[in-house]
Specification:
CATH superfamily of the largest domain: P-loop containing nucleotide triphosphate hydrolases
Distance between the termini: 63 Å
Strand order of the largest sheet: 2-1-4-5-6-3-7
CATH class of the largest domain: Alpha Beta
Order of helices and strands: HHEEHEHEHEHEHEHHH
Radius of gyration: 23 Å
Number of helices: 10
CATH topology of the largest domain: Rossmann fold
Length: about 290
Amino acid sequence: MNHELEQGLLRVLALGEVALTRWLELHGKPAAPDWQAEAFRWRNLGQGGVLQPVRHPHRVALEDLQNIDRQRAALLQNTRQFVAGRTANNVLLTGARGTGKSSLIKAAWNAFRADGLKLIEVEKAHLNDLPDIVELVASRPERFIVFCDDLSFEEGDHGYQALKTALDGSVAAPSANVLIYATSNRRHLVPEYFSENAATRYEGGEIHFSEAIEEKVALSERFGLWLSFYSFSQDDYLRAVRHWLAVMGVAGWDETLQREALIWATGRGARSGRVAWQFARDWSGRQESAEN
């Protein structure tokens, strides 16, 4: 290390941990992860990626997730096996928006974080870094859930191949202390078109049509466990509304409140746990304003 660089490092050291991390990132030498953190975000600033600690992670409670009992039981069982050092599967959660896919992953992590389970959030843009992330944590004693939220891929998307390889397609064996939990509104993660059926015809289409379809589903097939989520019925939605109102301290339930909840869902064009939570927040806030 030359004298100028050494002096710069000494100055940054005097400024504390945050400044040191930034200085190391700028000089292409990412700081070592803070393994005491419970959750991380993967950040790649162009000079190497870093595991950035999440100081205030979103702690979702399992009891707040309504109308997804089957999916909750399956994900908890898979996560329990993983934390206990037994075999478990990578998981793909797909289906209707706002029904609790992402929240269920965070709640499952929250249920087992006291047992040393850690969460790493990886954005779609950084999926190419998955091999680096796995290698970084492979020698650690903790177990890690790599959380990839709201995935979908277009034709030629590089992240598609990176995720496919990380799941089950590399010459390196999968790390025993890493699982990938991903969510998507698309079951096969890639768009599927009616025009693809035309490939069964001889006019310039695929000779081996079945192979083209196999390529489409190849990524989702590499997840050992699929969990599907569906739009709420009206009763399911109202049950979720009542739960969230109770959580927020709103007492009482009558026809007026039910009508307002249904009007809210109609305006949003969906009935889901997210819409129920948003209505409860709005109603609770308005009640507080009226009382003040």
